[in-house]
């Protein structure tokens, strides 16, 4: 069964078509890197697959179900800076959010077993020491990893990550990318990751989708990251170059690279 | 010998402090100050409507219920507009403007009804909804405040973590199976219900200040939720009781004293930063 199947999908805001011409499928366990310039519709597509945005036409299935019916199978990881840090929550409390809503309406206290699982999830992302720290006190990379731990604790089959590397310094990007690699190796989850910077994620991408209000290209990284395709999205200065057996895609101020031959 | 009306005022102040002390940090964290103001303004329209009905049916007990019902209708309308895609600011602005217009209309009708009932024993004053009359609180008022306040207090306590979570990351709550809409509705209705319960005691103007400033001050002093709640509760209680004693001794309206005290504390903290 496909993890995600889209046939003739158009995503709408009222009568405005935000994204159109979506035809693709992702198999279970695959990782899709979703690229495109600002305003291309990456987050809109991600939120539609997550079941938050329901105005679309065509056929969109997540593990054979409509996105809004597949909520239990999906974990959505927003950008860490979209959290309201005025709310003083500890890291373990943030992670527990991923599990407590599976049971009950009132959550006066977080059950002990949920705290235990939150600590395990934090340990998986390499943050066992910061469970008691407040979310607002963490570094950008740590915040993103806490949100990854929160996503993992709910045992999803599909992980949707919205710009997990944005606003991070290079070392924090490497940390988060390493955790994503670990998730791919050890959890075998299907992941869709929107990004402007494919560089740190190159090792885990099975598929790449190039989006600019419509589907421009979809396939393996070698199939999609080609001069003629990239120029169509990022402009005439964009290009792919091969240096020491790695393919680098230069897209204005964003440099994408990938292992393999120059097409 | 302490006068009975002063004891009633003290007891009412304690209940008010507990409710607003708990609610105020949430209003600040969730960014509901504008909604709170709109909600509390709708209490005035509810009170005017309640007085009209109370005079017509010769039962002024209707005032609080009318205020409560109108406020709940207002918050539900705001929530519905937000669901239809209006930004929270726009939704609140539209409804608040409409309610303000209705209030003006209501005053016109109220004065005409009052003119037709010159001999009705009129113990309620619409001005008390603006400035508060804690020393005029009756035993019945106190009983309603205690029972209603206790119910809201326990519900607020039970849902406090959920309210924190929907303030922190509503998409996250929705994504993991929680109903943000249901939690928001309950929170909005609670804001309205707390306002309806205590507006006559502290007054609309002071209510707006006490609902926002203790939480804002508490959040300036700590990043720990327990400490924030502690400071907010203590501050609300202290200000309420001090203003009550000062008012008893000096005849200055307690609501005005409470507002000035909180404003001064906030200003000092802001200056020291």
Task: Please give the structural blueprint.
The complex is a heterodimer of chains A (263) and B (273).
Chain A: E1 2-13, E2 16-27, E3 31-35, H1 42-50, E4 56-62, E5 74-77, H2 91-100, H3 112-124, H4 140-153, E6 158-162, H5 170-187, E7 190-194, E8 207-211, E9 215-219, H6 221-224, H7 227-234, E10 239-243, E11 246-251, E12 254-259
Parallel strand pairs in A: 3-7, 3-8, 5-6, 6-7
Antiparallel strand pairs in A: 1-2, 1-4, 8-9, 10-11, 11-12
Helix pairs in contact in A: 2-3, 2-4, 3-4, 4-5
Chain B: H1 4-30, H2 33-56, H3 62-83, H4 88-116, H5 128-131, H6 139-158, H7 160-168, H8 170-175, H9 180-202, H10 204-221, H11 225-250, H12 254-272
Helix pairs in contact in B: 1-6, 1-9, 1-10, 1-11, 2-3, 2-4, 2-9, 2-10, 3-4, 3-9, 6-9, 9-10, 10-11, 10-12, 11-12
Question: How would you sum up this structure, described in words?
Answer:
The complex is a heterodimer of chains A (263) and B (273). By secondary structure, chain A is α/β, with parallel strands linked by helices. Chain A folds into two domains: 2-224, P-loop containing nucleotide triphosphate hydrolases (Rossmann fold), CATH 3.40.50; 225-263, no CATH class. Helix content of chain A is 29%, strand content 29%. In chain A, the strands form three sheets. Chain A has a six-stranded mixed sheet with strand order 5-6-7-3-8-9, sandwiched between helices. In chain A, strands 2-1-4 form a three-stranded antiparallel sheet, with helices on one face. In chain A, helix 2 runs parallel beside helix 4. Chain B has a single domain (4-202), classed as ABC transporter involved in vitamin B12 uptake, BtuC, CATH 1.10.3470.10. Helices cover 83% and strands 0% of the residues of chain B. Chain B starts with a helix and ends with a helix. The A-B interface holds A 50, 52, 71-72, 74-76, 78, 82-84, 86-89, 94, 97-102, 105-110, 134-137, 150, 154 and B 28-29, 157-162, 164-165, 167-169, 171-178, 182, 219, 222-225, 228.
